[in-house]
Amino acid sequence: MKCKRCGELAAVKLPSHHAGFCPSCFEGFFKKQVETAVRRHGMIGRDEKVLVAVSGGKDSLALMRVLTDLGHVVEGLHVHLGIPDSSDPVAERTRAFCAASGLTLHVLHTAEHGLAVPDVKDAVRRPVCAVCGKIKRHYFNRFAYENGFAALATGHNLDDETARLFANVLRWDPAYLGTQGPTLPGEGKFVRKIKPLYRLTEFETAAYCFLKGIDHWKAACPYSGGASFTGHKKLIADLEDRSPGQKIAFYEAFLAQGRPHFAGASRGEGQDTLYACAQCGFPSSGEVCGVCRVREQVAAHKARREAV
Ligand code: SF4
Ligand code: ZN
Fold first, then answer.
1. Distances from the Cα of 183 to the Cαs of 154, 180, 198, in angstroms?
2. 214 close to 93: Cβ distance less than 8 angstroms
3. Which residues bind Zn(2+) 1 (predicted)?
């Protein structure tokens, strides 16, 4: 197969775009998709500083690289969760990549905030991933807000977004359907959330990392019960195989025609009003936010253990 742009030998075949690209033209294609996403959804204003949530995986590192290459002012934040045999090597790999690429990376240790994830796992009765996700979202937003970033960018790709949309549609969840999208505007102490990779698939970000020599972390978190929405992703991949282009069409049509019907939908009685958390001052649906409550649970659990 030949490259659609230059006629050289294609290295990446993309049936959904009825095209193949050589390495250099694939990078051009990749950048173009991100540029389109940023422009269409008002993600980044002129001279605005963007914080990238960096897990160390392929999507977040590709995002750091491509936004920087497109001329945006970008810094990364890696949240170190204190998970044995996982958090240290991931942070090291991420630091090494950013240092070698001249990218600014901040590292925040949740243990310094009384929230090492192994302690959280012992202290709470809920599945650890739900709580860990809440902690990460809190600190990414808080760091962005307290350090003057205009937006927080995450590495969600088209597969993540279509799988989430599919789940929200299966449940007909109006509040989630009303807010799901590539840009969530900022409000008060919530900074704007953006997903510049939403038009690119997992395969495309993996190909980008491979061709750019981005050495990302591949091992799963030891607490992971498997990737989220795996079943939904398989179903959508099946549809895409039978009819290339379905995935992006499904998502873009939702943004244009589906989402407006759910705009402003309520989260349920008493769920829409936000207060300032009495402990950290960040938005909360109750007097104390979920993260501060977990911190209290962890401290209480430790105190009980030490007392016996
Ligand atoms: Fe946190 Fe779960 Fe992800 Fe591990 S798999 S980093 S515990 S959300
Ligand atoms: Zn709080």
1. 10, 8, 10
2. no
3. 3, 6, 22, 25
Kindly list the averaged pLDDT for each block of 10 residues, start to end, along the chain of length 308: 96 93 98 98 96 97 97 98 96 95 97 98 94 98 98 98 96 94 97 98 97 91 81 95 96 97 87 92 96 98 92
The enclosing H or E element of 100 equals helix 87-101
pLDDT at 153: 98
Q: Is 300 buried (19+), middle (13-18) or exposed (0-12) by CB count in 10 A? A: exposed
Say which ligand is closest to the CA of 293.
2
- Alpha-carbon distance of 112 to 90, in angstroms, equals 18
Q: Which two tokens stand for residue 25?
A: 């033209």
Residue written as tokens 């939702």?
254
**C-alpha closest to that of 183 among 206, 159, 170, 199:** 199
pTM: 0.95
The predicted pLDDT at position 227 comes to 65
- Per-residue confidence (pLDDT) for residue 225, from 0 to 100: 75
- CA dist., res. 21 & res. 19, Å (int): 7
- 298 assigned to a ligand binding site: no
Measured in Å, residue 223 CA sits from the centre of ligand 1 at 6
Cβ-contact 248, 37 below 8 angstroms: no
**3-class DSSP state of 34:** helix
Domain spanning 30-215+227-272 has what CATH number?
3.40.50.620
| Ligand 1 mean position, distance from CA 47 (Å) | 33
Testing ligand 1's pocket by substitution, the residue of 54, 117, 217 carrying the most ligand atoms inside 8 A of its CB is 117
| Domain extents in the chain | 30-215+227-272
- Which of the ligands is closest to the CA of residue 142? 2
